[in-house]
Amino acid sequence: MSGRHRSGPRLRSRWPLTAAIALAVGLIVRFLALPALPDWLAARDEPLASDLAIALGGESSGSREAGAAQLWRTRRVRAVLCSGRALLWHVNEADAMAAHVRALGVPEDRIFRSRAGESTAEEAAHILPIVRARGVRSVLLVTSLTHSRRARALFRRAWRGTGIRVLSCPVDSPSFRRDHWWARVRDRHVILVELLSWIRVGIGH
Questions:
Q1: First CA to last CA across the chain, in angstroms?
Q2: Which of 30, 100, 113, 178 is least buried, going by the fewest C-beta atoms within 10 A?
Q3: Fold for domain 50-168?
């Protein structure tokens, strides 16, 4: 009995410390970790003059290919490659992206297409022989901000030893708002999918 009586006050005396630690962790997560997550997922390199801009698929707003077209208009690149996947019968995302790029002023002979790849890693593998065949030595990778660090890592890993320089030039996506992103279901989904994809990258997928 005496042992039980002593444990009660001891537990009660520890409760304020436990609560304070939990509160401190919660505040750190809320005000430091959560707002910083989009920055951690992003990679933005200096857009050095390069042979090719690669617009990755997966963003229906058209922001990625628009960013690649802007790099061509500002003479940062000499051509644009649109990478996409099959959407439905005889329709590939890369062709729709290329039409958008052409509408933004890039000539048809300066637009290339890659019509395969169900993941970023597969896109990197499929694009490599295309750029090698054209003697490309440097690319600017255009994708959404939260996807950019992983995309750059995957391309650099897939192209290791080729001598091709890969720089990241991300664009903002209308489908993601970084301010208080954790308060919106759609934005939480974007971050969660990206974090889970990082785990898959880490184990070789």
A1: 58
A2: 30
A3: Rossmann fold (3.40.50)
What residue spans of 104-170 are helical by DSSP H?
A: 120-133, 148-158
pTM of the model: 0.79
Task: Give the type of residue at 55.
Answer: A
Residue 177's SS3 state is coil
CA distance readout (Å), 119 to 1, 51, 100, 176:
63, 24, 22, 20
pLDDT band for 33, please (50, 70, 90 cuts): low
Domain ranges of the chain: 50-168
* pLDDT tens digits, one per residue of 23-32: 334 433 443 4
The whole-angstrom separation of Cα 100 and Cα 203 is 36
Dihedral-angle region of residue 143 (phi above 0 means left; psi in -120 to 50 means alpha; beta otherwise): beta
CB 166 within 8 A of CB 137: no
Query: Of 120, 108, 197, whose CA–CA distance to 159 is shortest?
Result: 120
